[in-house]
Write a structure and sequence with these properties.
Elements: H1 2-17, H2 20-26, H3 29-37, H4 39-47, H5 57-76, H6 82-107, H7 110-116
Length: about 120
């Protein structure tokens, strides 16, 4: 009995997720563009552990604006691209964290604290 239930569940999941529409979506730029773009937020999250003095304030600011623009773009296109939106939400949060670290180091006494250690 449990084998029949497992088989039915497997078939149900397969039919729901591995169908023509899903495969058509996976082979479009609507999917691969955001997937390849995820390298930016991954690098930004990794950089949150690096030394604060290596952060570029202007570049961080540019990336904050870039992600904000593309979050809006991801919702403006038809059909809406939630994968692209999610990528840029993650990047926006990571870049804002980097921006805070940059401001802390150069303007809020972080440099003096680091030199005191």
């Amino acid at each position: 009995m449990s084998q029949q239930v497992n088989r039915a569940a497997t078939q149900s999941i397969t039919q729901k997720f591995l169908n023509k529409e899903t495969l058509k979506y996976v082979f479009t730029t609507h999917f691969w563009g955001p997937v390849s773009n995820f390298g930016i937020p991954v690098a930004a999250i990794y950089d949150l552990k690096k030394d604060q003095k290596t952060i570029s304030g202007p570049m961080t600011g540019a990336l904050v604006v870039y992600s904000a623009v593309f979050m809006r773009y991801a919702l403006a296109v038809t059909p809406q691209n939630y994968l692209l939106f999610g990528c840029h939400v993650i990047n926006e949060v990571a870049q804002l964290g980097q921006g805070y670290r940059w401001l802390d180091y150069w303007y809020f006494g972080g440099k003096e604290k680091a030199e005191a250690k």
